[in-house]
Amino acid sequence: MDCWNDKGSFPEEEANASRKSIWSNAAALGDRGHVCAFFNDREEEYRVLLPFVQAGLERGEKIVHTIDPKRRDEHLMQIAASGIDIGALLRKGQFELRTWSDTHLRDGYFDGERTLKLFEAVVNNARCQGFSLIRFVTEMEWALKNETQMIDLLEYEAKANELWERQEGPVNPVICTYDLTKFKGDVVVDVMRTHPMIIIGGILQENPFYIPPKKFLKELRERRESQVNAPANTAKFIGNESSK
C-alpha cells in the first residue's frame, strides 16, 4: 500500500516506488489481472499508471495502450515526459499505441465479440515478436459515444473475465480506466462488478463487489429481456386505461 506521511499526504517518490513494487510482477495477479481504475483527472491517471508501464518495460514486456484518437499526440508527450524513450520503444515494437477507432469502435460501431478477437490477435502477434507478457491500458470513454449500449459494455467486460479464467500460462494484465467525472454512478457500480481488482484513490486492491462472469452474464440477459418486454407492457397498460 502507499505510504501516508504525518502531514496527511502521500510523499510522491515513496508513493511511486510503492506502486512500482506492486506492479513489478503483474503476472502474479493471474486471473485477477482484469483491473478497473477510477480517476478524477488525467494527472492522477498518469501518476498512478506510469509505474505499471515502467515496471513492464524493465521486465522486457510489451505495453499496449488504447486511447481517444484525439489524444494521441498528447499521450505520447506525457509518456516521453516521464523519461521513457517512446520513439525507440515504438520502433522496436515494445510499445503499441492504438485508438478507439481501430479497436472498440472500428467501422464506427462497437461489437464486443469482434473486439475480444482483435485483442486476442494483438496478444498472439506480441508472442510471435517474442514478448512473454503484454500489459494493456485502455481508456473506456469510447462507451460514452452511445450510452444506450451500456449493457453491451458490461457484457464485454464480463466475457473478458471468462477468457481470463480459461487462459493457460501467464495472464496478460489489463487496466480499464474510467473517468469518474464522465460516467454515471449506476454505470460505475456495474463496472466495479465486472473486475476482480480495482484501483481507487490510487490504490490497487481486491474488489469485494466483483461477481463471477457466469452469474453476471445471466443477470445481464435478464436485464435485456426486461428492456425488450417493457415497451409491450407499457402499450398494454395504456390500452387497458383507454378502454375504461
Chain-wise SSE layout:
Layout: H1 12-23, E1 34-39, H2 42-58, E2 62-67, H3 72-81, H4 86-92, E3 95-99, H5 112-128, E4 134-139, H6 150-166, E5 174-179, H7 185-192, E6 197-200, E7 203-206, H8 213-242
Helix pairs in contact: 1-2, 6-8
Architecture overview:
This protein has 244 residues and is an alpha/beta fold. The chain is 48% helix and 15% strand. It has a single domain (26-211), classed as Rossmann fold (3-Layer(aba) Sandwich), CATH 3.40.50.300. The protein has a seven-stranded mixed beta sheet, with helices on both faces. A hairpin with a 2-residue loop joins strand 6 and strand 7. The longest helix has 30 residues, at 213-242. Residues 1-10 and 232-238 have low confidence and may be disordered.
Top keywords for this entry?
single chain; 244 residues; alpha/beta; Rossmann fold; seven-stranded mixed sheet; 8 helices; 48% helix
As for the CATH topology, it is Rossmann fold
Q: What's the tally of helices?
A: 8
* Average of per-residue pLDDT values: 85
| Strands ordered across the widest β-sheet | 3-2-4-5-1-6-7
CATH superfamily: P-loop containing nucleotide triphosphate hydrolases
Helix and strand content put the structural class at alpha/beta
Number of strands: 7
| The CATH class | Alpha Beta
The poorly predicted ranges are 1-10, 232-238
What is the strand content? 15-25%
| Radius of gyration, taken over Cα atoms and rounded to an integer in Å | 20 Å
Q: Supply the CATH architecture.
A: 3-Layer(aba) Sandwich
